[in-house]
Every structure is written in structure tokens, then in C-alpha cells.
Amino acid sequence: MLADYTLESSSVPVHTTTVLDDEEKEALRTEIRLLIERQNAVLVAHYYVDGDIQDLAEETGGCVADSLEMARFGRDHSAPTLVVAGVRFMGETAKILAPQKRVLMPTLAAECSLDIGCPPDEFEAFIADHPDRTVVVYANTSARVKALSDWVVTSSVGLRIVEHLAANDEKILWAPDQHLGGYIQAETGADMLLWRGACVVHEEFKASAMADMRRVYPEAGILVHPESPAAVVAMADCVGSTSQILKAAGDLPHETFIVATDRGLFHKMRQANPQKRFIEAPTAGDGATCRSCAHCPWMAMNELRELRDALRDGSNEILVDLETAERAILPLRRMLDFPTP
Ligand code: SF4
């Protein structure tokens, strides 16, 4: 039986965000704006990073998006330097898609439990044991794992791509997120063999605590990212990627939402829907041992000072070896070329 690659809580870093006063924040924001201009750079930020960094990305002509749109935006933008505020696999994807560009990150320590939980050598052996299966990997993987795959998908297109493969009678080997894989399997009926990884943030959402919360807010809509456990997904009014959750928050008629994804997304949801109320979905509650309750410790490592330093010093450059990049770009291109509705 395949091993469980879910990270132990003790392996998840504890990150303490530096508290800055308004003056320090404004000074850093001004410096970053100037550096972006001087360096002819563009800032591409994920929905889960700090709200100040999201605002800076938008103010300076960059973007705030899910990982699929970040990849597209970085590839298509003319700036010779991309600064990716997110986690490491996002920087690697940007570099693979735009090898001629310099890709910097505020920190190289920002990893992802799904990426860590899919070691390339072990994954390669798993693939070798199942040569009849089409290998579909989630974007939250290293460049080496992408290079071993037939398709890369994100949570916004994974379901449609698997549907397409299943319609062609392809049997799938899926990695690394077992919850997202299980959700797609249930929705599509595809023959999927699942790697047993998990996101440490979404796995902490608990269905029993969610049921209690629903009793307190019976009128609330429930928005859930499919990296969450199946019992939490089953309670949702909308299951989707970060951009799909953001859209549902505006489209659905509810005035209050309980949201099971990283709280970084609340910044955009509140900006877009100031009249609505967004509540964090519950984790295990009092006494929980999670180090990642509703906020990814690696995403939290993207701070204003680190962003300024990377731009000023040209530090934390992402490099991907040529052979890996040439192989990994093929499944990435397949995803980006897959028709969107
Ligand atoms: S929220 Fe989960 S999937 Fe996203 S970067 Fe953090 S650990 Fe990875």
C-alpha cells in the first residue's frame, strides 16, 4: 500500500509575522513601488499572501490571482523581472514558462506541504509501477515532479481536464493531494489512483465543527476549497479554486459566508463585497494542534521587508535546470492550452 505523505504537524514551520506600524509599512510600500519601477519588474501575488502585498501588486500593474492565472500573467507580461509572492512551486512554474526572465521571490523558504509530500524519486518509482496510467499532477509540485508528468492541473481546471481524459478512457495516476483527487474522482467517475499527500491548511477544516458553526449562522453560505476533507466539501454551497470561491462570494445571494480556505483570500473577498460578512471555517477548535489553522505558514513568509530586500538585492532568484524545465514545460503547456469555457 502507498505510504501516507501527509506532513506531521511537527514538520510544519511556525512562522511569526513581523508586526510593522503604519509608518514603517508606508515607507516599505514606497520603497517597493520605486524598486519595481527601477528594476522594470512586475509583481505577481497569490490570493493567500499578505493584503499589503496584494494591493502593491495591483497598484503597480501586476496581478493577484490563483496559481493558474499567475502562471499565465507572468508568461505573457513583457517585464524582464518577475517577482512572485507565493510559494516556491509558483516561482518555478514562472521560470519554466519564461526561462529568459529573471524570477525573484521574497523568500525561498516558502514551500508547500503538497510539494514536500511528493518526493520526485519516490514518485518516479510509483509511476514506474503503473505504466498504463496517465500521470496528472497538481500544480503544487516541484519542477522535477512536473517533469515526470503528462498533465499539470490547478484546482480551477483539474476537474475539466480529468473529465476530458476519462472520456478518452484514460486511467489516471493522480498526485499529490488526495482530497482534491478524491473530489475529482467522485465528480467525474474517472479511474484514478491517488497519491496520499495533503495540504496542511485545508486538511485542518473539520466537518463536525462546521456543523456546529452552521447552527450558529444558519443563513450563511458555505464556500470550500476542494483540498479540504470530503466531509467538509459535502457541506458546501460552492466548491472551487480560489478564483471560483471569490466569484461565488459575489454571485451567491447570501449575506454571510463561512469560508474553508486560507484566510489570505478574505482580503479580496471583502474588497469585492464590502457589504457581506466572511467567517473563517472552523478547524479542530480549542486545543487544536495545527500550526496552520486557516493560514498557510509558508504563504505568511511573504512579508514587505523580504519583498523589498529581494527587489533591492536581486536575491532569491529561482533557477530550474534546463533538462527539467524542457520536460516540465510540456504538461504545463497542455494545461494552459486546454480550452476554457
Ligand atoms: S495553502 Fe496548502 S496547498 Fe497552498 S501553499 Fe500552503 S500548504 Fe501548499
Summarize the structure in words:
- This protein has 341 residues and is α/β, with parallel strands linked by helices.
- The protein has 3 domains: 11-111 and 298-320, 3-Layer(aba) Sandwich (Rossmann fold); 114-198 and 324-337, NadA-like (Rossmann fold); 202-280, Rossmann fold (3-Layer(aba) Sandwich), CATH 3.40.50.10800.
- It is built from 15 helices and 12 strands.
- The strands form 3 sheets. It has a 4-stranded parallel sheet, with helices on both faces. Strands 6-5-7-8 form a 4-stranded parallel sheet.
- Helix 1 packs parallel to helix 14 and helix 4 (88-97) crosses helix 15.
- It is globular.
- The relative contact order is 0.17.
- The model has no long low-confidence stretch (mean pLDDT 94).
- Iron/sulfur cluster binds next to helix 5.
Features:
15 helices; Rossmann fold; 3 domains; four-stranded parallel β-sheet; globular; binds iron/sulfur cluster; 341 residues; alpha/beta
